User: Which sequence fits this backbone?
């Protein structure tokens, strides 16, 4: 009885692994998530460029701004899923064509920190939290 | 022949269930993807001792270039010339059908005054936190 149950469980695990081997889930994360709370304590006209760097680190980009400069920080997250419906034929045939359906979603989260001409903090702009990307294979 | 639990081989046909299980596992191992851990680095790490050689109001453009080489980018902003040096580090973890790539960057921004003397330095090290991760779900 015990052997029978273990056998069935083994077959189920085998089928599960075989079926999942036709899929893949991939994620690419660039930098750490931007946390709005990290801007707490920055005072316009008083906080220096070093105060900003202590809170947020070095920016990914620096650009000329209106009367000063802008520090730009970025966080990226992308998810890709692919299902190969032809994979299962490899169980039965030595050569099997791939039949892939896949989809990827990605978001970029950007934080702007504006500095005054004397290089003190002026204001920050953080975009609303974008929808987190989801895994899905249906491309249509 | 099969390897039994007593540590010896036994003849085919004694236990066909075990043979099928072993054969199934071998087929499975041959068909599923394996695993991989891959690291990619672009640029050299910023050594602490080299960073400490940059002194505000003293170090000039030429000395910075001698320490760090030509900058990856030169930005003009708010009357400052800014040298930008960067480094990237990525770690890929891949197991069977799941994978995750974590990418992070270090940035060194050196601000010069109109006389070409260092006015300010901004450095951030994010690559020290990059980890190998396999699980793509959740945070």
Assistant:
């Amino acid at each position: 009885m015990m052997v029978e149950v273990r056998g069935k469980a083994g077959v189920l695990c085998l089928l599960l692994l075989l079926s999942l081997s036709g899929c893949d889930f991939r994620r690419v994360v660039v930098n750490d998530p931007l946390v709005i709370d990290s801007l707490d304590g920055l005072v316009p006209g008083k906080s220096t460029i070093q105060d900003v760097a202590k809170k947020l680190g070095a920016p990914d980009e620096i650009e000329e701004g209106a009367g000063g400069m802008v520090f730009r920080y970025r966080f990226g997250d992308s998810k890709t899923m692919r299902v190969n419906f032809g994979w299962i034929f490899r169980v039965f045939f030595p050569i099997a064509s791939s039949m892939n359906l896949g989809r990827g979603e990605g978001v970029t989260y950007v934080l702007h920190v504006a500095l005054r001409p004397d290089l003190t903090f002026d204001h920050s702009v953080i975009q609303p939290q974008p929808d987190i990307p989801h895994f899905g294979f249906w491309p249509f | 022949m099969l390897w039994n639990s007593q540590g010896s081989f036994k003849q085919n046909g004694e236990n066909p269930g075990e043979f099928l299980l072993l054969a199934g596992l071998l087929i499975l191992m041959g068909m599923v993807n394996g695993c991989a851990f891959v690291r990619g680095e672009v640029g050299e790490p910023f050594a602490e001792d080299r960073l400490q050689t940059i002194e505000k109001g003293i170090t000039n453009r030429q000395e910075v270039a001698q320490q760090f080489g030509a900058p990856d980018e030169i930005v003009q902003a708010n009357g400052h010339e800014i040298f930008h040096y960067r480094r990237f580090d990525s770690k890929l973890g891949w197991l069977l059908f799941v994978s995750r790539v974590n990418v992070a960057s270090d940035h060194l921004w050196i601000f010069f005054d109109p006389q070409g003397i260092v006015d300010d330095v901004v450095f951030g090290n994010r690559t020290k936190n990059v980890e190998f991760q396999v699980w793509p779900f959740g945070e």
Summary: The mean pLDDT of chain A is 85. The longest strand of chain A covers residues 68-84. The longest helix of chain A spans residues 2-20. The interface with chain B takes residues 3, 7, 10, 14, 17-18, 20-21, 23-32, 49-50, 53, 57-60, 62-65, 67-69, 79, 90-91, 115, 117, 119, 135 of chain A (CB under 8 Å).
